[in-house]
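Deliverable D2.4 — example input (structure tokens):
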């Protein structure tokens, strides 16, 4: 009797903290006591990890300007370049104003990746074409033609947490004519301004190997500023006139092109979104890189064998554990505390975020492990597995992992695969059998 009481308490305890809200309730009564309830833990189901690369990611809604380049021993050379249109809030400059200087001001938004102690370069080029997307949005693969010779170049040490902004002097010859036409009333609207100035692209140096830095897209923080003077009888009056980002809300006015040169890396074969790199072919590891579109794909090919367990059962809880190798992250390339968990179909098209009875599902670092300098991601996948068990006909779908800010960062993560000698990806299922055959 004590054994049965313990089993009932254990079952109810597990149910109370389960990821599900729709598990059949195991009620205490005659039928329950005659059912020979068992709670078992299973960790022998196969987990398969692979990596694939999305054909493109929308970056014109990223809320961040990204500029820079760095080389990674695993992921190759990652490069971020930005394209933007700048327009004024109004078209009014005093008749007697005299242009003094021009500067492009970029406010840091506190994001950076890789080594900011190294010198970075920014080359400012004039665009040849207007910032107009072909498909309503710009992607990380989008580009706009620009003048080969930069109008300005700056070499700098990024200070995203210590300084507010970066100041790039622009030659007066670039903006003097535009300044004069606005002053005379010859440029009065955005279309007329675009005829004079299509926009800018900010390009990192071709040989840079430093960091990728984030700048704000707020109209009050990133702008092209004209400094001018209004002569006075006793003292000159200094004023400014700004062209700002995001002033035309009807169309995308900026985007980031984010690419990785993967020549010589494990990812050379990932030329199409439907191509998967199995972890067994990737040094027993799986990979994620934001910005360029690399995600980890996870499947459970043997999960339907759970039906072979005698009796009627239900999954009370299912936790997937995956570990990033300790030598693949550090202060310069930090690990993320959580990852988004999404469904992906047989064509590797990401469909929606995974939910369970407690809300959105994330891959979260186990904090108790972190206290012992161990980093392990845990993912609640019970609801997903129940859906897989009821799936008919069987479809080659999966769950995919990637960082939360997938379109405006370049964060990268390495995960141990299912055959790793250091830590095998592991699925642990708590399973209740409550109507076992005699």
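Example output (designed residues):
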């Amino acid at each position: 009797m004590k054994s049965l009481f313990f089993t009932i308490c254990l079952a109810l305890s597990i149910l109370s903290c389960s990821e599900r809200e729709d598990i059949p309730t195991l009620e205490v009564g005659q039928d329950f006591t005659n059912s020979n309830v068992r709670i078992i833990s299973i960790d022998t189901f196969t987990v398969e990890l692979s990596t694939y690369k999305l054909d493109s990611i929308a970056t014109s809604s990223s809320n961040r300007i990204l500029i820079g380049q760095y080389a990674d021993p695993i992921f190759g050379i990652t490069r971020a370049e930005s394209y933007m249109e700048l327009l004024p809030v109004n078209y009014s400059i005093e008749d007697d104003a005299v242009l003094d200087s021009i500067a492009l001001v970029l406010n840091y938004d506190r994001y950076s990746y890789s080594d900011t102690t190294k010198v970075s370069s920014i080359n400012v080029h004039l665009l040849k074409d207007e910032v107009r997307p072909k498909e309503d949005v710009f992607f990380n693969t989008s580009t706009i033609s620009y003048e080969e010779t930069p109008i300005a170049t700056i070499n700098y040490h990024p200070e995203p947490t210590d300084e507010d902004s970066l100041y790039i002097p622009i030659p007066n010859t670039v903006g003097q004519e535009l300044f004069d036409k606005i002053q005379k009333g010859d440029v009065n609207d955005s279309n007329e301004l675009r005829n004079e100035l299509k926009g800018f692209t900010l390009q990192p140096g071709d040989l840079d190997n430093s960091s990728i830095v984030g700048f704000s897209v707020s109209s009050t923080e990133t702008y092209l500023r004209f400094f001018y003077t209004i002569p006075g009888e006793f003292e000159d009056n200094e004023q400014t006139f700004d062209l700002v980002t995001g002033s035309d809300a009807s169309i995308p006015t900026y985007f980031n092109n984010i690419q990785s040169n993967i020549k010589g890396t494990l990812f050379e074969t990932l030329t199409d979104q439907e191509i998967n790199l199995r972890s067994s072919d990737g040094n027993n590891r799986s990979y994620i890189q934001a910005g360029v579109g690399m995600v980890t794909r996870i499947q459970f090919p043997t999960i339907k064998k759970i039906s072979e367990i005698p009796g009627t059962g239900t999954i009370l809880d299912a936790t997937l554990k995956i570990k990033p190798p300790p030598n693949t992250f550090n202060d310069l390339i930090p690990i993320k505390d959580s990852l988004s968990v999404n469904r992906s179909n047989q064509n590797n098209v990401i469909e929606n975020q995974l939910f369970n009875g407690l809300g959105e599902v994330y891959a979260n670092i186990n904090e108790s492990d972190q206290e012992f300098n161990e980093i392990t991601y845990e993912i609640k996948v019970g609801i997903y597995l129940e859906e897989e068990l009821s799936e008919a006909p069987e479809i080659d779908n999966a769950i995919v992992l990637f960082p939360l800010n997938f379109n405006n960062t370049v964060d990268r993560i390495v995960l141990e695969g299912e055959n790793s000698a250091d830590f095998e990806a592991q699925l642990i299922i708590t399973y209740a059998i409550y109507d076992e055959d005699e």
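DSSP finds six helices and 27 strands in the chain.
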